[in-house]
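User: Can you recover a sequence for this backbone? Please restate the input before giving your answer.

Assistant: Of course. Working from this structure:
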């Protein structure tokens, strides 16, 4: 299929792509020598960027209708050797990409510390102190997967993000397994694992800094980056959010709060002829609620809810106050299989298929770890005629519920009331106990 990436690049950069592809084709056809081709690159292209390579690679590997002849990417790299500019984009300190760069800078320093420590006998407190910080790194990966990847995929940058997702998972698993080895006291295996971790992390950061971030800067608009900031903050950061300068830059700007969903829903209803004002009640199946009340109910449910429609697109997730797993608004409208690690995609597809065919109506999972029990239900959503309309995911942290013993039938508050309130309601509390 045609390469969508070109639609989001300036015309001058698209022209460079055509020149590079033309020279590569002519060289492979024997119509021009490598020195002649490189001389023309110097004269007509002068400087190329990582997104040129990514776009050409996407075109070559898709090989669909509408694209020119396929060339070997090794040929492209031979032509561009010495002409690729990997300079970091010049961006404001509060820009979302700068948060990724700062996190990479911190990780580079941590890897130097690891390289120093592996030379000596294991001192466990030193390593535990280091891993207290390293174990927060997966939030960098989660933010990238939920914020950058979906936007880039919509712009045609698909294959590189799929490959990088695999590398993300490798690094995440190695960090987890390294910590387990450290906790178990398997010092020799732990130290051996650090050398592998260093290699994979540096490989990952090189791909991020040489391809992912520059390509993101080229393809994603300033407005799209601005809209990412709230989702970035919701997911969190490996290092302390933005730098102080970024916080100062953001000061004074109104932050998007829970009323944002209300405004969005109201706008949709108004476009379709429903003049829903702030307090206008809407008919729901068993009552009447305002948009504000609907939003508040979802935010205060003790379960996380997500809804995927019959087209397998993520349409909704509840913005609960304490999410079990991080979410981002960028998943809305995205194919659900692209929101899961590759190792679980087959399970997701099987659930949807059996729900769609009417073979099953519910799939149940639970995660049992020390001090944590998470229960997950996937429920087939069908309309009044039995037609499949989507999948509802409900996820709940049941750790506290499983810990309960006996029974509790009397009113007991989990936290004490402030002194003034306590004195003013003493009689009520006593009466409750007497009953």
């Amino acid at each position: 299929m045609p390469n969508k990436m070109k639609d989001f690049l300036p015309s001058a950069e698209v022209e460079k792509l055509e020149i590079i592809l033309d020279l590569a084709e002519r060289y492979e056809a024997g119509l021009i020598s490598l020195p002649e081709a490189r001389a023309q690159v110097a004269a007509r292209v002068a400087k190329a960027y990582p997104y040129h390579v990514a776009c050409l690679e996407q075109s070559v590997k898709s090989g669909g209708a509408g694209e020119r002849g396929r060339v070997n990417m090794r040929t492209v790299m031979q032509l561009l050797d010495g002409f690729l500019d990997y300079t970091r984009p010049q961006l404001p300190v509060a820009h979302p990409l700068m948060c990724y760069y700062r996190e990479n800078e911190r990780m580079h320093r941590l890897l130097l510390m690891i390289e120093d420590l592996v030379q000596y006998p294991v001192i466990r407190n030193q390593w535990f102190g280091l891993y207290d910080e390293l174990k927060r790194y997966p939030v960098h990966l989660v933010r990238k997967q939920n914020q950058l990847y979906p936007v880039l995929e919509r712009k045609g940058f698909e294959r590189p993000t799929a490959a990088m997702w695999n590398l993300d998972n490798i690094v995440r698993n190695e960090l987890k397994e390294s910590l387990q080895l450290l906790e178990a006291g398997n010092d020799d295996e732990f130290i051996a694992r650090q050398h592998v971790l260093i290699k994979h992390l540096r490989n990952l950061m090189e791909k991020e800094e040489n391809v992912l971030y520059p390509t993101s800067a080229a393809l994603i608009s300033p407005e799209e980056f601005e809209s990412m900031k709230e989702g970035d903050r919701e997911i969190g950061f490996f290092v302390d959010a933005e730098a102080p300068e970024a916080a100062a830059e953001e000061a004074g700007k109104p932050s998007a709060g829970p009323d944002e969903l209300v405004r969005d829903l109201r706008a949709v209803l108004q476009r379709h002829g429903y003049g829903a004002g702030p307090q206008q009640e809407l008919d729901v199946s068993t009552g009447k609620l305002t948009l504000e009340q609907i939003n508040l109910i979802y935010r205060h449910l003790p379960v996380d809810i997500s809804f995927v429609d019959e087209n397998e697109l993520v349409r909704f997730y509840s913005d609960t106050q304490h999410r079990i797993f991080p979410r981002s608004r960028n998943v809305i409208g995205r194919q659900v299989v692209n929101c899961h690690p590759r190792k679980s995609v087959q399970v997701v597809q099987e659930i949807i298929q059996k729900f769609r065919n009417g073979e099953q109506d519910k799939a149940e999972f639970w995660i049992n770890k020390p001090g944590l029990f998470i229960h997950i239900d996937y429920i087939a959503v069908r309309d009044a005629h039995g037609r499949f309309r989507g999948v509802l995911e409900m996820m709940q942290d049941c750790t506290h519920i499983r810990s309960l013993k006996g029974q509790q039938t009397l009113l007991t508050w989990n936290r004490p009331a402030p002194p003034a309130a306590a004195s003013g309601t003493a009689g009520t509390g006593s009466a409750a106990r007497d009953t």
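That completes the design. Residues 273 and 420 are 50 Å apart (CA to CA).
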